[in-house]
Amino acid sequence: MDIKCTDRELFLFKKIATASQELGVASYLIGGFVRDKIIGRPTKDADIVCLGDGIELAHAVANRFNPVPTVAFFKTFGTAQIKLSDLEVEFVGARKESYSRDSRKPEVAPGSLEDDQNRRDFTINALAISLNRENYGTLIDPFNGLGDIEAKIIQTPLAPDQTFSDDPLRMMRAIRFATQLNFTIAEATFTSICNNAQRIKIVSQERITDELNKIMLSPKPSLGWDLLYKSGLLQIIFPQMVDLQGAEYIDGMGHKDNFYHTLQVIDNVAEHSNDLWLRWAALLHDIGKPPTKRFEEGHGWTFHGHEVVGGRMVPKIFSRLKLPMNEKMRFVQKLVELHLRPISLTKENITDSAIRRLLFDAGEDIEALMILCKADITSKNKYKVRRFLQNYELVAARLEQVEESDRIRNWQPPITGEIIMQTFGLTPGKQVGIIKDAIREAILDGVIANNYEAAHAYMVEQAAALNLKPLQ
Ligand code: ATP
Ligand code: MG
After folding, report:
1. Which stretches of 153-305 are DSSP H helices?
2. Across the chain, how many H-helices and E-strands are there?
3. Could you tell me which Gene3D superfamilies the record lists for this protein (predicted)?
4. Do residue 213 and residue 342 come from a single domain?
């Protein structure tokens, strides 16, 4: 097989070949590495399957390097890994699998190469290349995976109902590969995903979310989300997202389909940023629309407060999807909450204080917020899109100007709660908060200058209104 390998890879494969020969076991490169080499995608890990003991082969290969790399092995699974700087190689004995109804963990027994290829999820993932002397470099492709790579098709090697029922995670993998590679899922394979969708319930949330993140990091994430929706999987794994779907009409007045709008927004964001969490923010920016949807007589559809409701939904969704409940979640929440703010600044006569306030609220995430807001423009009317984008350019220029003079992004008011407590002999409590907020608001509104002296004087004034006097 004529594929482009680096010298390091070829050097390694030769070593595996000689080690296998010495042990008297046949070995093959298999799976994702072969697929990606044929497609011409970057590869990071290589899987080796051998007709024998994978751990023994791994040790034999490692011993041919100087210094000898560490072999990490797992006796129960019969697998072993060697890390060679940028390349991770995994060794396993060829095996045959049989599944029970209630688990995606099979019974395994040693098998032939053919058995091992039969248990693979897709034809494009079942390709093997021989590392054996008699046919070194030959592609072993029992299911025409090569043809499917050329035709850009994802399909299972065996009857799809069997493949998906055995391990329902493969349904997520099918959609993930279709999205990453921009391939089509063969009709019979997709129909089977639709029929087996309920089986996804036996898969752990972590595995499902892993695939969702891979879909999210693809060049066009909408492909995957649309397939999840059309297959019925989305209804099971993420129903709030399905609630966005559909356009309702009353008295001839409709609203846009927020599901497809959202998908467009993710693709727009994906063109400008590889940040997984900014992409999640795009996915969730309108998630508060279904629960806030109202029809107002004579006016039409409204979604008042959807950014606030949406922001509150973010932790629940992150928790359910087992996404991290940390600063990444707070970043997504913040963007959902703020996603309408820049639009409100595109009107005329916007004061510096409104600009300062957004800079303060968005802080370090102002650029991410602006990417999201621009991506949110999905009108089909080119002139409208152009006008909106021009308005955003104006807002961006104002943001830059105000930041330049006031340095608000990383700003903290010059008077801390600590200073307030010391000055008036207070313990932590409501009064401290009231004074602190008043100082911050006065500075953001431009009522007082942004320096210690002005803030101190203002603090004394505000405290007096609460009947507080400085100590001494
Ligand atoms: P990537 O590494 O980009 O996620 P990959 O195809 O290499 O893609 P891995 O999870 O690394 O995926 O798995 C390596 C190979 O193991 C696959 O190419 C496939 O042949 C097989 N495989 C992995 N998971 C499954 C599964 N759930 N069912 C059947 N075969 C699988
Ligand atoms: Mg892999």
Report:
1. 160-166, 169-181, 187-196, 205-216, 222-231, 233-237, 239-242, 258-272, 276-284, 289-292
2. 24, 15
3. 1.10.246.80, Beta Polymerase, domain 2, cca-adding enzyme, domain 2
4. no
CA separation for the pair 331, 315 (Å, rounded): 11
- Taking only the tens place, the pLDDT of each residue in 55-79 is 999 999 999 999 999 999 999 889 9
In terms of domains, do 144 and 171 share one?
no
CA distance 465 to 448: 17
Ligand 1 contact via 167 beta carbon (within 6 Å): yes
- What average pLDDT does the segment 284-307 reach? 91
Q: What are the CA-CA distances from residue 236 to residues 104, 177, 232, 240, 363 (Å)?
A: 18, 20, 7, 10, 36
> Which of 395, 411, 427 is a domain's end point?
411
CA atoms within 13 A on the CB side of 323: 23
Say whether both 15 and 138 belong to one domain: yes
What are the CA-CA distances from residue 120 to residues 114, 161, 450 (Å)?
A: 10, 14, 64
Q: Whose CA is nearest to atom 27 of ligand 1?
A: 170
Whether residue 183 is found in the same domain as residue 276: no
Cα–ligand 1 centroid distance for 32 (angstroms) = 6
For the cut 80, the answer to whether the pLDDT of residue 472 exceeds it is no
Residue 41: partners with Cβ closer than 8 Å, 6 or more residues away? none
Choose one of 29, 115, 119, 125 to mutate for the ligand 1 pocket test, by most ligand atoms within 8 angstroms of C-beta: 125
Which residues neighbour 441 within 8 Å (Cβ) at sequence distance 6 or greater?
Answer: 447
**Atom of ligand 1 lying closest to residue 126 CA:** 20
CA separation for the pair 278, 366 (Å, rounded): 12
DSSP, collapsed to helix, strand or coil, labels residue 335 as helix
**Mean pLDDT of all residues in the chain?**
94
Q: Cβ atoms within 10 A of the Cβ of 35, count?
A: 23
Q: Are residues 356 and 425 in the same domain?
A: no
Domain of residue 384, residue span: 271-411
The pLDDT, as a whole number, for residue 1 is: 64
Of the ligands numbered here, which is closest to the C-alpha atom of 171? 1
Closest Cα to atom 9, ligand 1: which residue? 32
pTM of the model: 0.92
Q: Which ligand is nearest to the CA of 122?
A: 1
Q: H or E segment at 384?
A: helix 382-406
